Amino acid sequence: MRMSRERIFHLTDLIVKELGSVPGVHVKAPDDLRTEVMRALSEEAKLADSIDGEVRKISRPTRAGTRGQREWEILYQKTREEVFRKRFRL
Q1: Burial 6-21, CB ≥16 within 10 A → b, else e
Q2: pLDDT band at residue 58 using 50, 70 and 90 as cut-offs
Q3: How many CB atoms lie under 10 A from the CB of residue 79?
Q4: Pairwise pLDDT comparison (59 vs 27), residue with the higher score
Q5: Whole-angstrom distance, CA of residue 76 vs CA of residue 67
Q6: Over the chain, what is the mean pLDDT?
Q7: What string of DSSP letters covers 26-77?
Q8: Residue 80 to residue 90: CA distance in whole angstroms
């Protein structure tokens, strides 16, 4: 699922706010932290989209029914795990 810019901004604000409220944690430069959190979330979203695209190419609907059916969902999850392991050598 693709994350919108608004969703990334919202999650970034929640993370920075939560970190600021943790006892013993002092955020010296919240703007710098916000930038880094936003960068990390954006990179994760791009990675997830890339993996999803690769999995959808492999798991064509004709191989396991159509999208949304239970068989296709199972094949999609198994293929996603394989692609993830292959990319990160797990």
Answers
A1: eebeeebeebbeeeee
A2: confident
A3: 19
A4: 27
A5: 9
A6: 86
A7: --S-HHHHHHHHHHHHHHHHHHHHHHHHHHHHHS-TTTSSSTTSHHHHHHHH
A8: 13
